Amino acid sequence: MKTVDWRRVDLGGVVYSYRHRKQNQHDQMLQYRNRATLNHGDLTRGNLSLHISSVDPSDSGPYRCFVPKMDLICFANLTVVPKDQQNRTKRHDSSTTGPPPEEEPESEDHGGNREAVRAAVISTVVFLLCGLVVFLVLRSRAE
């Protein structure tokens, strides 16, 4: 593959661009410079996985991958949960020397954390499916 473009659909900018067998930073959005990578060796195997380091909630949003030579487009939605919401724990600050108070039963609504896990799993599955589609297309063209 000579060209692969990853873009933020909602922002209209380039997250990562691979042209003529090398990274092209010319049009890359500044907030993704030195954070977005693509394993160039995996491209021949159809793996188009985009890696973003040091993610934060502003990285959340819809992404599009485009491979012009194959006329292939894949979409993925990334949701990043702030660290303080990821690891919510119940704290009891007490200066007494007696036994700790009994824990209140947690409500059945764990929606925030469960939704974050669900979003992470779905995003991962979508990325893997995009890679699988590209692999299968490449394999069918090779036969």
Characterization of this structure:
Helix content is 25%, strand content 24%. Mean pLDDT is 78; it is low at 89-100 and 103-107. It has a 5-stranded antiparallel sheet with strand order 3-2-1-6-7. Strands 4-5 form a two-stranded antiparallel sheet. β6 and β7 (72-78) form a beta hairpin. The chain has 143 residues and is an alpha+beta fold. It starts with a strand and ends with a helix. It has helices at residues 83-86, 111-142; strands at residues 3-8, 13-19, 22-23, 36-38, 50-52, 61-67, 72-78.
Uncertain segments of ≥5 residues (pLDDT<50)? 89-100, 103-107
Cα-atom radius of gyration: 21 Å
Strand portion, in percent?
Answer: 15-25%
Shape designation? globular
Q: Major β-sheet, in short?
A: 5 strands, antiparallel
Secondary-structure element series = EEEEEEEHH
Number of helices: 2
* Tally of strands: 7
Overall mean pLDDT: 78
Instruction: Please bin the fraction of helical residues.
Output: 25-40%
Structural class designation: alpha+beta
Please give the order of strands in the largest beta sheet: 3-2-1-6-7
- Termini Cα gap: 17 Å
